[in-house]
Each structure stands twice: as structure tokens, then as C-alpha cells.
Amino acid sequence: GIRHLERGGIADLSRRQRAKSGGDTGSAPYRHFPDRRALLEAIAAEGYRRVAATLAPSGVRAGEGARRMVLFADEHPAWWELMAGCGGAIGPDLEEARGTFLAELVGVVERSIVGGGPEEAIRLAVAVWAALLGLVQLRAGGGVALLDATMVPEPAALAESIVTGRPMPPAGGRPR
Question: Lower Cβ count inside 10 Å, N or C end of the chain?
């Protein structure tokens, strides 16, 4: 399913297509997933687990964590889109995987801030997550194409600015 998603995107992914490309009969995926949504949720959950694993090593701070998240998004755009778009009522596997990812991201933020309690780290982690989702979407959709590349924030600088409250480096990347 993951290979098919990455070849054809979310719209092309179906259980029957996945089964045929894997050499199974068209009904084989029904033994594993009751419907298309369950298949998509399983793939999204695996994506969250993989991103969480990149954030897990001790010492990863906000800037490096942001780089790792966006690297995953750049290497797996359809997967990232699926992960960002799985909304509504979700199953327990996806909920658990998102929770694991968010816990790792909160840990990254906690290593990057001075002071503040766990609630502040959670809020900042969600802000970083939201900002990176938006940045990736804007870049992928051409929303920032009209800007000079130096005006588009680098993921690490964006995350560090959100977490520390310090301004981003000026255009051209020289620290203030």
C-alpha cells in the first residue's frame, strides 16, 4: 500500500489496485482492511511511527526535529499529505501513532526551551507541527513560489523561532 501510495498518490490508492500490484486477488485486502479508509489509516499510522522514530534520539532539539520532519515530507510527499489529511473519526491505531509522534515532538520542544511547564511544551509542539504542515503545503502547492527563496523560512529557523520566541535570522541566513 505504501509503495502504491508513493507511486500514484492518495487518489489512486485503492485496496484492489494494491492487491493487483502485489500479485493478490482483488479481494485479498479485505482480509486485512474492512475498507479503503482503514487501509489509509494504517498507512498514515506507519508514517507517524516513522517520523516519531526520527525524533526519538536524545539530543534532538527543535531545529533538528523540524529538519527531520520536513525531510520525511519532502521524501514522501503523498504519505505526508495522507498523514496531514486523515481527519474526522480515526481508529485506535492511528490515534496511538499520532500520540506517539506528538509525545516525541513534545520531548524535542522540552529539550529546546528554558522554563515553562509541560502544558507550554505541548502548545509549542502543536504550533511547530502546524507551522511545518503549512510550510510544506505552501511549498508543495507553489504558494510561496512568487517569493525569493531567502524570504521563505527554513524549517529549523521557523521551529526555533516558535519555541524560543527569538526572531528568525534575516534573509540570507545571517544571525542577528
Answer: C
